[in-house]
From TrEMBL:
EC number: 2.4.1.-
Alphabetized GO MF terms: glycosyltransferase activity
Entry-linked Pfam families: Glyco_transf_92
UniProtKB keywords: Glycosyltransferase, Membrane, Transferase, Transmembrane, Transmembrane helix
Membrane topology qualifier: Single-pass membrane protein
Localization annotation: Membrane
GO cellular component, one term: membrane
Record-annotated membrane-spanning stretches: 9-28
Gene that produces this protein: Galt1
Family of this protein: Belongs to the glycosyltransferase 92 family.
Protein name as catalogued: Glycosyltransferase family 92 protein
Amino acid sequence: MLCAGKKSYFAAAVCIITVTSMLAVSYMRLQRLSHQPKVIQEGRRCRGKIANSTITALKGNKTFIISPYFDDRESKVTRLIGIVHHEDVKQLYCWFCCQPNGKIYVSKAKIDVHSDRFGFPYGAADIVCLEPENCDPTHVSIHQSPHGNIDQLPRFEIKNRKAETFSVDFTVCISAMFGNYNNVLQFIQSMEMYKILGVQKVVIYKNNCSHLMEKVLKFYVEEGTVEIIPWPINSHLRVSSMWHFTQDGTHIGYYGQITALNDCIYRNMERSKFVVLNDADEIILPLKHPNWKTMMNSLQEQNPGTSVFLFENHIFPETVSSRMFNISSWNTVPGVNILQHVYREPDRKDVINPRKMIVDPRKVIQTSVHSVLRAYGNSVNVPMDVALIYHCRKALQRDLPRESLIRDTTLWRYNSSLIMNVNKVLSQTMLQAQK
């Protein structure tokens, strides 16, 4: 016996710790070995239909694949962003086809369902597989078994295989445009404010919107500002428009918002210096700087090693208006005129304002809506005197009298450029809409 003859409690404790450590190391080694890719076929051509939908349902096992991404930040893996049933999906395998030698490798996946599921049976998940060491696969297939015929499985292109130089400084990710979205004026104002503040790309996960909104999106796509990711999640799952589960038989919350946000981070990991996670009715307004670039330079200098910057949300009720900027040509456009809403609700006692984020996407592993779940580097709450989120929406504190609201005209700093730019967009999109 390893511990025979040891009578003192100290020696016994040392022995127990030593044996436990040895067993733990052995277990971890076995676990890693079980996930190592294994050759199961040789001399084969890579077949199988290449998936071209944003959301692909795997046959019969309650798993939906969005997209796989190469990730070598810790080890050489393929990380698939997906949606799974948190109880019923126990085992998945990655099938890699390596050309030109024609070897097919199978790698057991680690299924990591994100902790922020908010009670729904389905949740965002990372499906992570070690890649073959002597191969850089371009596609991967997913199956619940390590046996079968790869020809029958959909193949997914592995993105981010090649490192790129940043093409943009700021990309805004807007998850889940749904509900026949028709807040056209506020959307255009937000887009133009983003551009004034330094955004070059806005990625929108679109479920549905109004006909007029389609015209506006088409304009921004042709301009090169917007990238539309089709998001037909309700074709696969019963979706809720709420963020928390209410025993109503739905499968996933808020149109799969968390999955879309994670996909957006990985999609832009190699092409954008920063990724901004907020909604279309939210604008991060700098108070000490003219734009996001100078603001982020300052914040990074003051917070070395920080990869996640969180900005506090403040409600500007759309029911309380200023008489300023009542622009008659905008009155026929559906939606809210944010320039008329400069009264914000005061902080509520014992209620923490939610936050939205600007992140370094290369440092994020998993994100939720109001914070990251896993990341390299620190998170910092940005003080309100540096920037705040202007959030124009329905009031949360509906019974407050007007005199209890705080007049905040920070947005008016940009009024001249904003009005001119919005008028340009309206002159083109409204004319197209009338044709």
